[in-house]
Write a structure and sequence with these properties.
Length: 163
């Protein structure tokens, strides 16, 4: 608890980018700041040395603003109930393979963030891997029917649980 009292909570500019932020800190030479995701939209910033995060907030304010909307001292009541997950969607017809269609398909569970490289490059068209932000706390495993140009398609939507 003492450790957390020295930490800061940040609301990210773009949900789904939390895991890239630590690498960005390292690329800029900020090795003394640990970035820990707290959900889909929030992250915890902790300095290895006392005052390290505060100094960063003063010296690199513009750089931090590209990653974070808001930065506040840690508060035990602040939680992010949303989570970022990957969905595998089977059965999407090739002529509907685009971000607009993906965003519509995932609406029942959350907000479309992006697709993985293989999905974007269409290296395979049997399954789309889509990242979404959701408040759903149950594992997604459903079948849905969608119409594309008047034709009905049966899709399988499955959350990647990685273990």
């Amino acid at each position: 608890m003492e450790r957390l009292k020295k930490a800061f909570v940040e609301k990210v500019v773009q949900p789904g980018m939390l895991h890239n932020i630590q690498n960005a800190f390292h690329r800029q030479g900020y090795f003394g700041v640990k970035v820990t995701p707290l959900g889909s939209n929030l992250t915890l910033l902790e300095g290895q040395e006392a005052g390290e995060v505060q100094a960063l907030m003063e010296d690199a304010k513009g750089w931090l603003e590209q990653w974070f909307k808001e930065i506040h001292p840690w508060d035990p009541k602040v939680m992010d109930v949303k989570r970022t997950i990957w969905l595998r969607i089977y059965g999407i017809p090739p002529h509907a393979w685009n971000d607009l269609f993906f965003a519509q398909v995932v609406k029942p569970w959350g907000t479309f963030i992006n697709a993985d490289d293989g999905t974007m490059k269409k290296t395979t068209l049997d399954v789309a891997h889509l990242m979404i932000r959701t408040s759903c706390q149950q594992v997604v495993d459903e079948f849905i029917d969608v119409k594309v140009n008047g034709d009905l398609f049966h899709l399988r939507v499955l959350e990647d649980s990685y273990g």
